[in-house]
Amino acid sequence: MHKNIQVALSLRFVLDFLPRTSHPRFFRLRDMSKTTDLKASAVSKKGIDPNLYPTARRDETVEDNFHGSKIKDVYRWLEDPDSTETQQFVKSQNDISRPFLENCNEWKKINSKLTKLWNYAKYGCPMRYGSYYYYFMNTGLQNQSVMYQQTSLNGDSKEFLDPNKLSDDGTIALAQKSFSDDGSYMAYGLSESGSDWIKILIRNTETGKDLNEILNKVKFSEISWTKDNKGFFYCRYSEQDGKTDGSETKQNENQKLYYHRLGESQDKDTLVVEFPDEPSWRIQSVVSDCGLYLILAIVKDCRDNIVYYADLEPGKEINSKLNIKKIVEKFEADYDYVTNEGSKVYFRTNKLAPNYQVIIIDFEKPEESNWKTLIAEHKTDVLDWVRCVDEDKLLVCYIRDVKTVLQANCLRTGKLLRVFDLDIGTIVGTSGEKKYSEIFYNFSSFLSPGCIYQYDFKTPEIMPKVFREIKLNLEGFCRENYIVEQIFYKSKDGTKIPMFIIRMKRDTIEPRPCLLYGYGGFNISMLPCFGLTGLMFIDTFDGVLAYPNLRGGGEYGEKWHNDGRLFNKQNVFDDFQASAEYLIDNNYTSKDRLVIQGGSNGGLLVGTCINQRPDLFGAAVAQVGVMDMLRFHKFTIGHAWCSDYGNPSEKDHFENLYKFSPLHNVHTPGSNEKEYPSTLILTADHDDRVSPLHSFKFTAALQEAVRNSKFQNNPLLLRVYTKAGHGAGKPTSKKIEEATDILTFMSKSLNVDKINLNSEQ
Ligand SMILES: *[C@@H]1O[C@H](CO)[C@@H](O)[C@H](O)[C@H]1NC(C)=O
Ligand SMILES: *[C@@H]1O[C@H](CO)[C@@H](O)[C@H](O)[C@H]1NC(C)=O
Ligand SMILES: *[C@@H]1O[C@H](CO)[C@@H](O)[C@H](O)[C@H]1NC(C)=O
Ligand SMILES: *[C@@H]1O[C@H](CO)[C@@H](O)[C@H](O)[C@H]1NC(C)=O
């Protein structure tokens, strides 16, 4: 279990937007001579008369009693995605936002420049399964990356799976894959329109043909093969009724673990594990490297798991419920299976080690007093992940002050064997298995789109070598023209918060357009990574990017996360606001040039911050945000976020959430100071992670609040995308469209004095 199945509000896709990596020759050298100098007024804000916003019906009769507080929910009707009234609301919002964004010269120019920049070949790490290597490749603008198969690393490759052929518009994505131990089959999950639901299909790797069966109602599931290659374990929500295409809002409960046998239809699958008394539990399963255990890491929200296991007897049919044995019974820490040697099972855990350590639990003597520590917790660095390679080695990755450190340790003694040299940046991909001595890792950083290194433990004297380096087909990008700095600023309570600032090199610092991006939650670490749109912002507006590592993330282990969740959530907002103040006070930007952006849990961040400090920002972009903090737990997998937000049905949590819930803290500007920044709210019709209803209700409340205010000229817009979800699997054409909308919005709503949109060279 390398990384848990995501149900948190993680935004791998937002990371697309983020600068995610760094390498030379990426970006075209900024050519100032071609920069058009524009009068601020020419691209200045285009105000919107607040009376033009569509009127959303207020239903004054809907009222909830929260522990004695009566709270109206006048836009409850917007929670029904299928009603004509909701659809009309969406249409009337798009009728305002689309022309605002699209009917201008900038949109076309930004779109064509961005499309050019995007058009370079992207490769994933080679992965070895059975007699083949596989890798993903995207020629540049393909909507989905294509999977290739080859018999040797230097040999010819043939197309193995091309998701682009599965739909005309690229909205079917390969969401997951898992090979049988001998590599003869690949089970894979397809997701449609960005939904979390997947269908599992099985492909024969020799013939490239799929078996007949298709497994449905699968969500938040691992696919773990038994070592006899005859079938695999997976989870489904078999009781979920109604539509399951991702546009529904029904809660996901009662996940069950099944065993599927190759060649049989899904209705013959064996139910192996269920917990009928625990509807919120989700079952993450992994077959141990030796094949003799099925290890279950059970979670109920977004942190802490218990550990159960079942013995798998070689040669014995799996045709009934498994007999479960309990190892860890309390939800109080994370346990991540690494590998095992007989009954000695290795876990990475934060049990009594907030920065994580590697321990060994002997399944024959599982009492905690018998647990052994193999790699002890580091005082300051977070042990981010561990992977067993080359029989007896552990590839170990640490986060040190928000930068990646990669090393190898001995599986038997825990001793450090070697450290891999890395620049400031992040390992964004790895491949390597216990049975192979060869590993690959993809390193990336703010100014480097990615570089895959190859290393073989059989030849330790040979340094890791560059296997493939991403080359942009754009001339002139020169890393030396940019600066990446990491500073530490003080938040409201004095805590030091790290922040990366990326900009063009110059002698003096003067206020420039600045994109401030934040997340702050769910223990998700915002590591340095490459993003085209971010560099496009720098290049086009001579801008500055800023990435603060807000509390709530995992950058400094469990403590950092704890300091930004539950009753400490306000710290996250304070950290973000303090980062804006730092950037203004230190001349990197000014209020009218500063835009904040965040998605998902980061959309909540943006929604809250424009309510709390409208005076601090020029513009704001909130993507797929959680905006109704009193009802988030009622839809799809929302209940799993109680570990970060708290449960509104408990009084003290309700009181805490009510203080910052974006929907419940909207104000009517009574002065220029209180005017909302220009705000763009983005969501999509198949987002079943954070239902679009959050953005609908928040927009309705904002527009209603400003309707009669003479102090509100900045636009407050909602754009709803169709056939799209929370972000994962989004086709390239939709990513470019969204990025174009965002950059156009920024260029129209910020005080931009230079704009370089010349995409010819
Ligand atoms: C990607 O999908 C869009 C439709 O969503 C289509 O217009 C475009 O041609 C596709 N791109 C490629 C490279 O196939
Ligand atoms: C929390 O974040 C740390 C640092 O990124 C990571 O190593 C750990 O696995 C995360 N915990 C969970 C439960 O995801
Ligand atoms: C490395 O990862 C980045 C970011 O995920 C990706 O764009 C790139 O294609 C990968 N491969 C290489 C060779 O950099
Ligand atoms: C801030 O920027 C202005 C230009 O707008 C410049 O005159 C001033 O010296 C800068 N201040 C600092 C402290 O760098």
From TrEMBL:
Domain Peptidase S9A N-terminal: 54-466
EC number: 3.4.21.-
Keywords of the record: Hydrolase, Protease, Serine protease
GO MF term list: oligopeptidase activity; serine-type endopeptidase activity
Catalytic activity: Hydrolysis of Pro-|-Xaa >> Ala-|-Xaa in oligopeptides
GO biological process: proteolysis
UniProt GO cellular component terms: cytosol
Domain Peptidase S9 prolyl oligopeptidase catalytic: 542-751
Broad enzyme group: hydrolase
One Pfam family hit: Peptidase_S9
Assigned protein family: Belongs to the peptidase S9A family.
UniProt name for this protein: Prolyl endopeptidase
Organism: Drosophila pseudoobscura pseudoobscura
